[in-house]
UniProtKB/TrEMBL annotation:
UniProt record similarity statement: Belongs to the G-protein coupled receptor 1 family.
Lineage of the species this protein comes from: Eukaryota, Metazoa, Ecdysozoa, Arthropoda, Hexapoda
Residues passing through the membrane, by range: 90-114, 126-150, 162-190, 211-232, 270-292, 330-350, 370-389
PANTHER family: AT19640P, MYOSUPPRESSIN RECEPTOR 1, ISOFORM B-RELATED
Protein name: G-protein coupled receptors family 1 profile domain-containing protein
Subcellular location: Membrane
Family annotation (PROSITE patterns): G_PROTEIN_RECEP_F1_2
Keyword tags: Membrane, Transmembrane, Transmembrane helix
C-alpha cells in the first residue's frame, strides 16, 4: 500500500504543480490518498490499480477544477488507439502462451533438424540455428513478461535489480533477434544461389560457407547493436517515501537529446530492419518467378514424354522438381512471414528517427506489444510451416516420436538374417 500511496501522492503533486498551485500540493498527504483508494474500492469500481488511478485522477480534476493541457503531439490518435491499448492489457497472458508453444515447437525443430539424414543439408543447418535463436529469445521473454505485465502493475516496485534485468533483456533480445534476421537473410540468399546457379551450387553452397554464414549471423549483431548499448542506461530519480524520507527509483532510459540517439534509430530501422526486408522482398519475388518457371518446365516435360524412355526421364525429373518446389515454397513462406513481422517495425523506427521523440512516445511505444507479439509468433509458427511443406521433416518427426519409444520392444535381427534380407533385396532389384 505504501508504494501505491506514494505514486498517487506524486500524481497529485504533479497535477497541482501543472496548474500553478504548487503550494497546495503540500496539503495532500497519505491519509487522503488512502481514503480515496478505499472509497473507489468500496464503490466497486474495480480492484485493478490502473483503473483506480484513472478514476482518482479524473476525480481530482473535477473536484479541484484543474485543466491539463492536451498533448500537442497528435500522432496515432483515433479509435484504433483504444483497440491497441485493449490488447496491451492482455499482452502478458498472450505472450506467455505464445512463448510456451514456441519453445516446445522450436525444441522439436532442433531435435528433428539434427537427425543424421536432415543435418546433412546445409539449408537445414541454417534452419536449426534459427530455431535455437528463437528458443533463447522466448525463454528470456518469459520472466520479463511475468514481471512487467503480471507483477509490476500490482506492486509498482521498480528496484535496481529490475532495472538491471530490463537492460539485459533489451540488449539480449535485440542481439538474438538480429541474429534471427541475419539467419533468415542467409536462408534467402542460400536458396537464391542454389536455384539461380544450380549448375555451380555444389561449388558455391559448401559446408564451409554455410558455417561461415552461421558464425557471421551471430557475430555481426553485437556490432550492429553498439549504438543501443551506448544510448540506453540505468537512470535514477529522486523520490520521497510515505514518511517523507528521500528515496531513489531506478529505470532504464536513453538520452533523447544526443546525436547518438538519432544514429541508433537509423541503424536499427535502416540497417537491421528495412535493408534486410528490401533484400528479402527482391529475393522473394525472384523465388515466386522461379516457381512459376518450374511449373511451366514440368508442363513441357509432361507434353514431351511421348516415348517410354522419355516418360521415365520426365517422371524422374518431375520428382526432383517437386522436391525443389516444396523446399522453395517452405522457405518462401518463412520469408513472407518475416516481412510481415519486421517491415512494420522498420517503418515505425524510421519515422521515429525522422519525426522525433513525440512520435516515438505516442506511436512506437503504443505498438510495442503488438510488434513483440508478431515477433514471437514469427518464431513459434515455423514448426507448422515445416510440417505442412516438407515431407522429409514430417517423416523424420514421425520416426522421432514413434520408432524410438518402440525400438526397445521390437525384435533385433541377427547378422545372418540382415545379410539374407540384403541379398534378397538385391535379387529383387535385378
Amino acid at each position: 500500500m505504501s508504494n501505491k500511496s506514494q505514486i498517487l501522492f506524486n500524481i497529485f503533486q504533479e497535477i497541482l504543480a501543472a496548474s500553478g498551485n504548487s503550494s497546495d500540493s503540500q496539503s495532500i498527504n497519505e491519509t487522503k490518498i488512502i481514503s480515496v483508494l478505499r472509497e473507489q474500492a468500496s464503490h466497486g469500481k474495480g480492484n485493478n490499480l490502473g483503473s483506480v488511478l484513472v478514476k482518482v485522477v479524473n476525480d481530482a480534476q473535477t473536484k479541484l477544477n484543474l485543466t491539463i493541457k492536451p498533448d500537442s503531439c497528435g500522432y496515432c490518435d483515433g479509435d484504433f488507439r483504444d483497440i491497441i491499448e485493449a490488447y496491451n492489457g492482455i499482452h502478458g497472458y498472450v505472450s506467455l502462451l505464445v512463448c510456451t508453444i514456441g519453445v516446445i515447437a522450436n525444441s522439436i525443430n532442433v531435435a528433428v533438424l539434427t537427425r543424421k539424414d536432415m543435418a546433412a543439408a546445409p539449408i537445414n543447418r541454417l534452419l536449426k540455428w534459427l530455431a535455437v535463436a528463437d528458443v533463447f529469445v522466448m525463454l528470456e521473454y518469459v520472466p520479463f513478461a511475468i514481471y512487467k505485465y503480471l507483477v509490476l502493475p500490482e506492486t509498482l516496485d521498480f528496484p535496481y535489480s529490475w532495472a538491471v534485468y530490463l537492460l539485459f533483456h533489451m540488449h539480449f533480445a535485440q542481439i538474438l533477434h538480429t541474429a534471427s534476421i541475419c539467419l533468415t537473410l542467409s536462408l534467402a540468399i542460400w536458396r537464391y544461389i542454389a536455384i539461380k546457379y544450380s549448375d555451380r551450387s555444389h561449388i558455391l553452397c559448401t559446408e564451409r560457407r554455410c558455417s561461415i554464414a552461421i558464425l557471421t549471423s551471430f557475430l555481426l549483431p553485437p556490432i550492429l547493436c553498439i549504438p543501443t548499448f551506448m544510448v540506453f542506461d540505468i537512470h535514477t530519480k529522486n523520490v520521497s517515501d510515505v514518511h517523507g524520507n528521500p528515496d531513489i527509483a531506478y529505470h532504464v532510459d536513453s538520452d533523447s537529446q544526443g546525436r547518438l540517439y538519432q544514429i541508433n534509430f537509423w541503424v536499427h530501422s535502416v540497417l537491421i530492419k528495412l535493408l534486410p526486408c528490401s533484400i528479402l522482398t527482391v529475393i522473394s519475388l525472384w523465388l515466386i518467378k522461379a516457381l512459376y518457371s518450374a511449373n511451366q518446365h514440368q508442363k513441357n516435360l509432361r507434353n514431351y514424354s511421348a516415348c517410354p524412355s522419355g516418360e521415365k526421364m520426365a517422371k524422374r525429373q518431375h520428382k526432383a522438381d517437386k522436391r525443389t518446389d516444396r523446399t522453395t515454397k517452405m522457405l518462401l513462406a518463412v520469408l513472407l512471414l518475416f516481412l510481415v513481422t519486421e517491415l512494420p517495425q522498420g517503418i515505425l523506427g524510421l519515422m521515429s528517427g525522422l519525426l522525433g521523440l513525440c512520435f516515438f512516445k505516442r506511436c512506437y511505444n503504443l505498438f510495442g506489444e503488438i510488434m513483440d507479439f508478431l515477433a514471437l509468433v514469427n518464431g513459434a509458427i515455423n514448426f507448422i510451416l515445416y510440417c505442412s511443406m516438407s515431407r522429409q521433416f514430417r517423416q523424420t518427426f514421425r520416426q522421432l516420436l514413434v520408432q524410438r519409444p518402440l525400438a526397445r520392444f521390437l525384435p533385433t535381427a541377427s547378422h545372418s538374417e540382415s545379410h539374407n534380407q540384403t541379398t534378397c533385396k538385391e535379387k529383387i532389384k535385378r
